[in-house]
Amino acid sequence: MPKTNLQDSFKEFCKKNNFDLNSQQIEIINLLDQFFDTNVNFLSKIFKKKKKLCFYLYGKVGVGKTMLLNYVYDNLEIKKLRLHFNEFMINFHNFRHEKKDDNTIRDFVNNLKKEYDLIYLDEFQVTNIVDAMILGKLFEIIFDENIKIIITTNTKLTSLYKDGLQREQFIPFIKIIENFSVQKELKIKDDYRMKDIKELQEIFFPLNEKTSFRVNQRFRELTRNKNKKSEIVKTKGRDYVIEDFYSGIARFRFKDLCDKNLGAEDYINIANVCSHIFIENIPIFHNENSNQQLRFITLIDIFYEKKIRLTLTLEENLHNLGSSLKHKEIFKRTISRMTEMTKSLQS
User: Fold this and answer.
1) Whole-angstrom Cα distance, residue 75 to residue 127?
2) pLDDT, tens digit (0-9, with 9 covering 90-100), for 206-215
3) How many Å apart are CA 169 and CA 114, to the nearest integer?
4) Exposed, middle or buried: residue 10 (CB in 10 Å: 0-12, 13-18, 19+)?
5) Which residue of 5, 152, 167, 218 shows the fewest CB atoms closer than 10 Å?
6) Could you report the per-residue pLDDT of 3-43, keeping only the tens digit for each?
């Protein structure tokens, strides 16, 4: 249950932080208040209605989905867990790798049930067949155990894993979520992360000698009086060596992070030892480098979640980086987040 009346406290929160407030946000706050109202759930049992165990909030980039759910989550007095969706699935796959038996999914959910009544999954997206094939059964058991789920995503439920490999096997998951979910789209015209942007001194383009000089100068400023050493990041027995590492400040080329066979868990472990990351030589994206683009999208999502500061060098202006057709919509979130993660360094 929420600690206080959510609508009143949210209005006060927005006023205190000089956040814009609109009727869409208030409507969603009220829906979330009802979602967590135990009396509503009790009545649903009496009248044989399907109990809603999932709140699925979707919308375009930068409209404030995560801000809204973070606020509600922080005001809940309940056993709860908040994870980026990538981390949640990594935890599951690690558990399955260690367990190796027919009851893996149920055992994993039983462990969750012992600790939590609510799981908050931020930035929900399905990009690989392994996750697509397992999610239906996983969520079916989660709902059987009466664990509530709240989700933020850019994607409408029926468009999840669109054009994915063997998508027909993913449809049962969509049906399960539809049966148990309150679905709501947050529609706001502006991207809040793009408002009041000053010159982005932490983004350098195009790739030439002048850009190289400026980014080298910036790197020297930040690493002055810090000792250089190689940092070894271990992921499932693999060693990834960060050569340019100065007490949490690291420097990479794009191809070092996105041309190699790295995934979400590698990026999480890199983020865990870094506070500021330079990523250089980011290319223009198109259909031919869509795999690298997808890794880059995952990387930015994780670095954003871990509150990593970024300095970037780009082949082109941030808004002219292009995209593969497959990732065009989701890449809008990446651009928005890159804007915020570099802007955060401004004085």
Assistant:
1) 32
2) 999 989 988 9
3) 30
4) buried
5) 5
6) 557 888 888 888 887 777 778 888 999 899 888 875 455 44
